[in-house]
Amino acid sequence: MKNKRISIKDIAKQANVSTASVSRVISNKPGVGKDTQEKIKKIMTEMNYKPNINARSLVKNNTGNIGVIVPGGSNTIHNSFFLTIIEGISRVIDQTEYNLIVSFTTKQHKKLLDTNIVDGILVFAPRENEIDLEWLSNLNLPTVIIGSFLENSKFDCISADEKSGVKISVENLYHKNHRKIALINGPSESYQSKIYKAGYENTINKLKLNQFILELSEFDIKGQETIVKNFLQTHDDVTGIICSSDNLALGVMNIAKDLNLSIPDQLSIIGSDNTPITNLISPKLSTTNVNLKQIGETAVSRLFIKLNTSNHYTHPINCIFPMDFIERETTAFLK
């Protein structure tokens, strides 16, 4: 037989107080003495009381949910860049009564936004083919973009300085005597990829070098091994590779090993974002570093500011986190 759900009335009866007093304690509102507060909280713990989120949402006129829109479907679930940022988001969410609802496909995105089940959304590294930003803007829903800087955007954007990151990476290889430096990038429809590509092209042009660019359908090698292998074989004079994600760099390392290319003696490889796995593999991956957890924390904190102020649809801000280079074992001077 199903156990009866403990209600506010049950708590009030046990504490010998009014339901209004219990409600004030649950909502952290003033008007209840300190001793009474402690008594009510103690009884709530003893009776294993859990607030009815749906009922409270009706009273407060909100859903109690934050949506996270993620591109790339199931591929993104295994991406440590996404997982590390989510960890930062969760740190802040855990200090509130909000829940996270994560959406991975275009159909899910539309359902999430059309059904009014979230109070605000975090859009993770958007792509042109997955979500219409103009349509999103017209929803008048508090929104923060994570992982991509969008010029002239109506939204707050919280991201790494990818242009600076790729510049640092290319220049690092250049100063190690590399002159054939390639970029292996994510999908062309990703705003994050566009920024990374622009940074690569600007730096390569300033150094008066030739460009070698391979754009893949995801920020992961899985399912695209043959394409990458053919690229490396066709461009066998390339001695340095910049990747727009650590996941891509790890995949390139595996394929290079299959081709009997020595890392870093014959081929230097650099990743991006310094995700946790980069320091656990052999050889350890050289990469650009940014505080991904802090990006997540900042994005959701900014969203809460927008949720709690009346003018959250105006004055978008851009918060760009600096990147620095971490030298490990996959880069070396060209002999």
From TrEMBL:
UniProt cross-references to Pfam families, sorted A to Z: LacI (PF00356), Peripla_BP_3 (PF13377)
Molecular function terms, GO-annotated: DNA binding
Transmembrane regions listed in the UniProt entry: none
Record-linked InterPro entries: HTH_LacI, LacI/GalR-like_sensor, Lambda_DNA-bd_dom_sf, Peripla_BP_I
Every HTH lacI-type domain range: 6-60
UniProt cross-references to Gene3D superfamilies, sorted A to Z: 3.40.50.2300, lambda repressor-like DNA-binding domains
SUPFAM superfamilies hit by this protein: lambda repressor-like DNA-binding domains, Periplasmic binding protein-like I
UniProt keyword terms in alphabetical order: DNA-binding, Repressor, Transcription, Transcription regulation
This protein's record includes keyword NAD: no
Name of protein: LacI family DNA-binding transcriptional regulator
